[in-house]
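quick one before i forget lol
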Amino acid sequence: MVNRKELNPEASLRAAFGELLRRLRDERGWTQDELGERMGCSGTHISAVETGRRPPTSRFSASADRALGAGGKLQRQSRALRHSALLEGFPEYVRQEARAAEIRLYEVGVIPGLLQTPDYAAALEVDAVRREAITPEQAAERVALVAERQAALARSPSPLIFAVLDEGCVLRPMGDTCIMDAQFARLLEFAALPNTVLQIAPFRMGARRPFSLPITVLTLPDRSLISYAESAQRGHLERESHFVLPILTAYHQLQAEALSQAASVAMIEQVRKGTP
């Protein structure tokens, strides 16, 4: 079919819903307009949901289930989408991260997931639940994913991991002093690994800091590059080299301006001494 967009159900929960909707529609031999007529909406609306440009509402999912005789499959998928704690685009990033040969990350404000202890991760999500930003079930999903991501990196050969943390990551307390003491110990253990580099970007860098938001650059086994960045609503995975290469260059500049690993370890140890 001309101009039929290829769908990747692994990219996100929204993409998985769209792929399921299209597959059920194709099985019945209906066009988007024909399904839309049965549901009381336009074929354009069906197309937008299938390709992920528009999220499915609970009403849309129930109507599609009835029209397609799907036995509640679409409603269950829709509920999972609405209740998920993961940003759009993040599941695909995690899949690429698990096979990356090199990981370069920069984080602001909190310890990044790959370096978090379970208690730190849980404390972070408890605060999000308190603010009613997520549900307790979503918090549990996020904490479990942190452990899964860390476990995926325990492979041979080990990926090279370069982590630059804004100074605020180590100065911001999360949970009680015992949690922070264990988290500092985890950072020091990470810095001592043979396949890692840990650096702190001090506040005094000021305008020389090239990024104001978290950023990650992955080098895949075939040496291709992917960058990942997040807004408040979704994550964006970039594969086009002419967009990724300037980010990689800026990351190298960040590393050059940040504290050395030895100086970064010394800073963490000094901050840790203030933890009873």
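fyi Residues 90-116+152-273 form a domain with the Endonuclease; Chain A fold (CATH 3.30.870.10).
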